[in-house]
Fold:
Amino acid sequence: MSKLQAASVALIGAPTDVGASVRGASMGPEALRVAGIDRALRGQGVDVLDTGNLVGPANPWQRPEGGFRHLAEVVAWNRVVHDAVAEQLAAGRLPVLLGGDHCLAIGSISAVARQVRAQGRKLRVLWLDAHADFNTAALTPTGNLHGMPVACLFGDGPADLVELGGFSPQDPALRAPELRQIGIRSVDPGEKRLVRAAGFQVFDMRAIDELGMRAVMERALEGMDETTHLHVSLDVDFLDPDIAPGVGTTERGGPSYREAQLCMEMLADTGRLGSLDIVELNPAYDVRNRTAELAVDLAESLFGKSTLMR
Structure:
């Protein structure tokens, strides 16, 4: 049986790339299904309900307007994601969002944050990514919203996204003590200033190189207890592109296979996982679905599969 508290998982497909810089992440949910994510999780003793794919607007592939690209479509997708995640949390299932690009984390995390606060529990979000995703319309020339979800969750962004789930700039969905970022290695200069001002902990690749993944994870998980809801937001570009080429925004020098496995096993050891995003998988850039298979392998470890003999 899995080490997790939840006995039931709900897979939620969100096939869209409206927030991304390149097309293709909309095929991510099916690639993960082809790679056998349902079988892998069932193999860890978890009941799996595949709810199918959510429906939202098509990608219009237009230029940004007012500093944001495809804002109306991004808002629509995040609303349906928010409602779907909230529904599964209310039913006592652990929602696993199959993206889709990383802008969708606005919807998933705002739903998680709303429930956690209503229950008087603690929230811990681990953002596994090559990028800080703390851009704003004033900083980025592209307007791509997959580079802005953390800023929106911190209350800096379009009102329709910041206020999703009943939050506001004064009372945002996410607060600095609740967030840890791991694997970061590509941050714009202006974005760095905003991240420092926001005050959350960032364990970039230099920290992993200097301290090792074990020490980084111990620090990232410090302070969690039985009242903590752990949300993991896994952008597949967190991984080194030598082992995970199937993403649209590759950044060299990411975690190795063993480092990523250790990360997942230590997360599983907490027994606190309550929700998960797997995003930015882009089969158009993959080789024989190997990145999807790796993502499923890591998810399997996150749900309890271990390499330990002791």
